[in-house]
Write a structure and sequence with these properties.
Largest sheet: 7 strands, mixed
Distance between the termini: 79 Å
Shape: elongated
Number of helices: 33
Number of strands: 27
Structural class: alpha/beta
Strand order of the largest sheet: 13-23-24-25-21-26-27
Bound molecules: adenosine-5'-diphosphate, magnesium ion
């Protein structure tokens, strides 16, 4: 077989191998093609150029295509994972094309024939399963979208309902949801998919893609939309069930999205079937809604710079296992709104707070337990190795230990529930693996020697032959020495005869005669020696020659058998994995509560929000590292029927932003089922959380336009309700003073009168502190500052009242501005304040008596009135007037 493209300029036709390459490549145009040739994956043409740049490997050439050199580069198969990781992290997709037959097979078809090759898998950011490619502490999911016409009447809804399916092949998680267009980006931000797939038409929708742009997940087009009948069929087929009833009530859009997700799984895994759980609907009403901007702003799982370090999650994550870390991330991303569930989770954390020894022992066992879900997923995709089986064995052993540890305990109900999930197949599976698998099994099944010695006679024999052929031959020689009654008999080996028996000439003559000739067969006569063979030796020879092959074959068969036994228990193992993760999260939160001295919050269905001695967990941790102390602060936004709004003033660097965020974080932590950094916390479950930072302060997002600030503020004013918590930090600062002040003012009025949400509003517009006089649920808070021997000291303490506004000039003085400038500033300030007294803001409020009415929700649109209002009778020709009249009549008939 000739695999080398010949450098034959005249041949415009590609070589057979190149033709095969081009065919496979054109079926996978959006992927880099890893084309298997022996021990290398080779890349050609543009792929080679891209990969050599991305990976820093040498670009060579191989043969010619249409008269030009073919650029080529290659990566060794055994190091392919490293290169894949690099390419995936750079956002590439890779199609892995393997040799589907032995080159010897191809040769049988004739000299020119090419080895059969096929793409066995697409490696994309959202579908990887390899341990080396995965971040242990992060889910690795992709999201599939579908959409249907028909919004739910929400003003911000573009008329589409979206189905969303989120699949993590590496763990089997499969969640679906149905959302309006306005909520889509927020929902995706929570799920943090590594990749988004959707039908061509959706990917081409520029309005949608611009909304998804900041998610940092590449968008992959999936051809036609799958919906209706064929979507349901795809689900039924994949899960081998006859009806979707067992899946709970899935909506049409959810089914279509789930089907799109399965389509993508099939397309990337090329027919292999990962052990996915059945799709379950994310019951959206039950979780705290946090939109994308708020997530970014509060740095929940990632900092503004995009790093995990310094985020809330990194600060509180004390989990002992990667699966626990992933579940904790999920809980923080989607805190509950159900007081009962929250209380149950807090009971579980309290249980571990109160049982330090048990907690420590559980954590020690969990720390040794491997990642079951990911091992299971690799096995189900036939990508698993002996180490994955070893991981399952270790996990089962750990589960057994944990069950024993809790056997004498009265545990909190959720803890007991998770412990019950750990009992898999009555120990049968663990025993099956333990008797078969050797210690320290290798990653790759081709490495061999992972089935325990003594389990399988056939395998043991094959191995003995392979490894101990010398010893076997030596013992056979000893037997023949006795049988032939000569000490001069030797068993030797050469390439021509293989193994043979050699005796001196004189002894040889004897062996040619009975009874010896029954055993020994003459092969060769040399000058002074004779060579014989025996049936046994020939058989042994054949056995030794194929022993290595047989050992491997047998071992692989035993591997498949054992993997099959594991997969038969896939559902139970999935639950065990979830049980581990849940126990880990409870114990880790217990550890956290004890280590940081956090308290159990009380969450109910009231509209309370009373936090005493609250702290910002991340700022506190970073101050602590510098040996500084965080000043704890109270917050009370509760009221019987609607939330209070606190207007927080104070100079720069006084701690306003920190205070705002810490209260939002305490709500998130409490509803996620964690203890909180406070002396005490009592709050009514928040249903939606909004946090916005004025454009001038929002530096890290690099889109500091006033427009963005206003769009986001609009979203809050349109969506927030009485159960919501709203955090507004320096809104209105991004524009001219009077514009900004007016916008901030109107925003507070709207929040107070219409949204009636609990809210914190940090502002440098002093005038706003006057509003308390007119709004009953508005309170003024200020950050205390002390003038200590001519030095401004920030106490970071929140107190009732408004800030002393002259601190700005004071700070300027401290910063070393020339004395003349400071003196002039004081004079101007005095003048401005005097002017303010002549026309105080209070007066302004009286001059704007309509604010309360203006803040009410806009009246519903009336098409008839609007049309009427738009008509200017003086400007109409008689004919136009008649047309207008007809139009009005038609509108009236429709109304
Ligand atoms: P502002 O928004 O008022 O300008 P920040 O909230 O950004 O102020 O806080 C500025 C700095 O002050 C923070 O980075 C932090 O180091 C410190 N700080 C804030 N709040 C506290 C506190 N309660 N206790 C101690 N230090 C604090
Ligand atoms: Mg600030």
């Amino acid at each position: 077989m000739d695999e080398k493209p010949r450098s034959d300029d005249k041949a415009a036709r590609p070589t057979p191998m190149m033709a095969q390459y081009i065919e496979i490549k054109s079926a996978n145009p959006d992927c880099l093609l890893f084309y298997r040739m022996g021990d290398f994956y080779e890349l050609f043409f543009e792929d080679a150029e891209t990969a050599s740049r991305a990976l820093g490997i040498m670009l060579t050439k191989r043969g010619k295509h249409q008269g030009a050199d073919i650029p080529m580069c290659g990566v060794p198969v055994e190091r392919a994972d490293d290169y894949l990781q690099k390419l995936i992290s750079l956002g590439h997709r890779v199609a892995v094309c393997e040799q589907m037959e032995d080159p010897a097979e191809a040769r049988k078809r004739g000299n020119k024939s090419v080895v059969r090759r096929d793409v066995v898998r697409l490696v994309t950011p959202g579908t990887i399963t390899e341990e080396q490619l995965l971040d242990p502490a992060r889910p690795n999911a992709f999201a599939a979208l579908s959409r249907l016409r028909g919004g739910d009447g929400n003003k911000l809804d573009g008329g589409w309902r979206y189905g969303l399916a989120c699949v993590d092949i590496s763990t089997g998680a499969f969640d679906v949801a149905e959302v309006g267009e306005a909520e889509l980006a927020g929902e995706l931000a929570r799920l943090e998919p590594r990749e988004i797939v959707a039908a061509e038409a959706i990917c081409a929708d520029a309005r949608l893609t611009s909304q998804l742009a900041h998610l940092d997940a590449p968008l992959t087009a999936l051809g036609r939309d799958v919906g209706g009948e064929s979507a349901a069929r795809r689900l039924l087929d994949f899960f081998c069930v006859a009806t979707l009833e067992g899946f709970g009530a899935l909506g049409e859009a959810e089914i279509a999205a789930a089907a799109a997700a399965i389509l993508y799984v099939e397309r990337t895994q090329k027919g292999k079937r990962p052990a996915l759980r059945r799709p379950s609907s994310l019951r959206r009403s039950a979780t705290l809604e946090i939109d994308a901007a708020t997530r970014v702003n509060l740095e929940l799982t990632r900092t503004l710079k995009g790093e995990r370090d310094g985020s809330l999650l990194a600060t509180i994550d004390m989990s002992a296992t990667p699966a626990g870390a992933r579940l904790l991330a999920e809980r923080i991303a989607a805190p509950s709104t159900e007081p009962e569930l929250i209380a149950q989770r807090l009971d579980a954390v309290s249980f571990f707070v109160a049982a330090p020894e048990l907690r420590a022992r559980l954590r020690a066992i969990l720390a040794r337990a491997p990642d079951v879900a990911r091992a299971l997923s690799r096995l189900s995709l036939q990508r698993g190795g002996p180490r994955d089986l070893g991981n399952i064995r270790a996990a089962l052993a750990a589960a057994r230990e944990i069950v024993a540890l809790f056997s004498a305990q009265e545990a909190a109900s959720l803890v007991a529930q998770e412990i019950a999930e750990l009992a898999v197949s009555d120990g049968e599976l663990e025993r099956a693996i333990a008797t078969r698998l050797a210690d320290d099994p290798p990653l790759d099944k081709r490495a061999g020697n992972f089935i325990a010695q003594g389990f399988d006679a056939e395998l043991d024999e094959a191995r003995a032959l392979r490894d101990e052929s010398r010893r076997v031959i030596a013992s056979l020689q000893q037997r023949y020495v006795e049988l032939a009654e000569t000490k001069q008999l030797k068993i030797k080996h050469n390439n021509f005869l293989g193994f043979f028996i050699e005796v001196p000439q004189a002894q040889g003559e004897r062996l040619l005669r009975p009874p010896f000739d029954a055993v020994f067969t003459h092969r060769q006569t040399m000058q002074d020696a004779m060579r014989f063979s025996t049936r046994e030796l020939a058989e042994l020879e054949a056995k030794i020659a194929s022993a290595a092959d047989r050992a491997q074959e047998r071992e692989l068969a035993l591997f498949e058998e054992l993997a099959g036994a594991v997969l038969a228990r896939a559902q139970e193992l999935q639950r065990l994995a979830q049980g581990f993760a849940a126990l880990d999260v409870f114990a880790a939160l217990g550890e956290l509560a004890v280590k940081r001295d956090w308290t159990r919050p009380h969450v109910d269905s009231s509209l309370d929000f009373e936090i005493i001695g609250g702290r910002h967990p991340v700022v506190e941790a970073s101050l602590e590292a510098q040996g500084k102390i965080f000043a704890a602060n109270d917050c009370d936004l509760g009221d019987a029927r609607a939330g209070k709004i606190a207007v927080v003033t104070g100079p720069n660097m006084a701690g306003k932003s920190t205070y705002l965020r810490q209260n939002a974080l305490i709500a998130i932590l409490a509803q996620a089922g964690s203890f909180v950094p406070a002396k005490s916390a009592r709050l009514g479950a928040v249903d939606r959380l909004f946090s916005r930072v004025g454009a001038a302060d929002d530096l890290a997002r690099g889109r500091s336009t006033f427009m963005v600030e206003m769009v986001e503020t609009a979203a809050i004013l349109n969506c927030a309700g009485a159960r919501s918590l709203v955090i507004l930090d320096e809104i209105g600062r991004g524009t001219a003073t009077f514009d900004g002040l007016s916008i901030a003012w109107a925003t507070i009025e709207h929040l107070h009168e219409v949204n009636r949400a609990r809210a914190l509003f940090a502002t440098h517009f002093h005038e706003l502190t006057q509003l308390t006089k007119r709004m009953g649920r508005l309170v003024n808070l200020t950050m205390k500052v002390k003038d200590h021997a001519g030095e401004v000291v920030f106490l970071h303490e929140v107190a009732k009242g408004a800030a002393d506004r002259s601190y700005g000039v004071h700070v300027a003085e401290l910063a070393g501005l020339p004395a003349s400038v400071v003196a002039r500033a004081h004079a101007i300030l005095a003048e401005l304040e005097a002017a303010d007294r002549r026309a105080p803001v209070e007066k302004l409020i009286d001059d704007l008596p309509l604010f309360a009415r203006a803040a009410q929700a806009a009246p519903p649109k009336d098409a008839l009135r609007e049309t009427l209002a738009a008509i200017d009778p003086d400007a109409l020709t008689p004919r136009e007037a008649l047309a207008a009249l007809y139009e009005l009549k038609a509108k009236a008939a429709r109304a």
